[in-house]
What we know:
By secondary structure, the protein is α+β, with helices and mostly antiparallel strands. It is built from 19 helices and 11 strands.
Amino acid sequence: MKRTLAWAVFWLLVPFLLLAQSLQDYEKRITEFTLPNGLHFIVLERHEAPVVSFHTYVNAGSVNDPGGKTGLAHMFEHMAFKGTDSIGTNNYPEEKKALDAIETVYDRLDAERNLGIRSDPKKIAALEKELEAAIEKANSYVDEGAYTRIIEENGGVGLNAGTGEDSTEYSYSLPANRMELWFLMESARFRHPVYREFYKERDVVREERRMRVESSPQGRLMEMLIATAFAAHPYKNLPGGWASDIENLRVRDVERFFQTYYVPVNMAIGIAGDVSPAEVKRLATKYFAPLPSAPPPAGVITVEPPQEGDKRADVASPSQPFLMIGYKRPNQLAKDDPVFDVLSSILSGGRTGLLYKDMVRDKKIALAAEAQSYFPGSKYPSLFLFFVAPSLGHTVEENEKACYEILEMLKKEKVDEETLNRVKTKIRASVIRGLDSNRGMAGQLPSYYVNYGDWRKLFTAIDDIGKVTADDVQRVARQYFTPAGRTVAYTVNPKTLADEGAK
């Protein structure tokens, strides 16, 4: 018995021992510096293999899209791969003239359209044809895919970018002997962006919305949930933007967004791999110091008003039924943030999670039942999310009721220590596994730096998880999982709606 207990204690302590060693080790291998213009670099030395991962973190996402311009942050992300005045063109002076001509024609077209009922349909048709010709001429100067091709021809892998609610991020890896290429390419697209093929790419962004939201039952349900949950805060808009906004975005909108948010002080860069910190600083100074300094952009000022009752919405869909439940929760800086992470793992920690055991395994009323500690973002107050896919022959109402029964149990009964310790160990182990990847660390270091002011929060956050008690779990469940802060969205078969309407 004593030996069994000793081994149990040992395995509980392993993550702590690894964590302590890791933090001390990483502090020795991490160098950080800030250029005079405000751009911050965090460099992790790892010489095991001759590769380097790079990650640019921009502290701006869809939450920063101006009113009537949703999808703008996402649109610039697409533009960032179009090249510069020297990459992606076969004759930039002529291309520049052609790009300017597009905007001139578009201004005339918009002016005519803005006349409303007094506009001339024939004039609009003629201007649309003129615009199409101007776009075609500008596109004739494009060296298609040059920016991406250069990176891939030099051994670049994992080239990717993503726009979320709170950030926009760019990343890829290169052989160590091609490190300077990254500095050249990454700085160039932020020093000399060219908005070539803008309207072609706008159509691509519009098509992405059609595929991911309009043609997806889950996407439409997700959009309905957040649009219902948030009355004022821009979290009510998905990163892809609303269709009518996307269709009317102009080059000047993206230029303004870039000039406001893509300033050095609002960005951070993580580099992990076979590098010399001194060489990184030399190259950073050479390529990124010329970026002009600018004041940090203002944050979102709109505060979501208190929710004062249960909100509900349904989405007509003939597909597999789905259910989403969101409870209002505070932002990532709140003292209870680690408690929400523990709660999420208790509810949705794989086959040991309460949702799976009760709804999928035992009652068999759901094909899947999961929880997420924050949605759609975490920088501002958001939602604790439940997502359920009812099994054949079972309804969203039945599953919704089961979710509430599980939450009531958490409010009435404290989580046992065995479950709590297992969840904490699992969360710690997950974070520690993430430390092994150059790509993962290059991304996490600037993210934690921007969001918490210090990359070390990546490690100290695990200490915060370890301090969560059963009392904390019960208290937070009681405080936040209430009807007053709840929003429910679910799919309904159109036939059911038609039958109800006929009654």
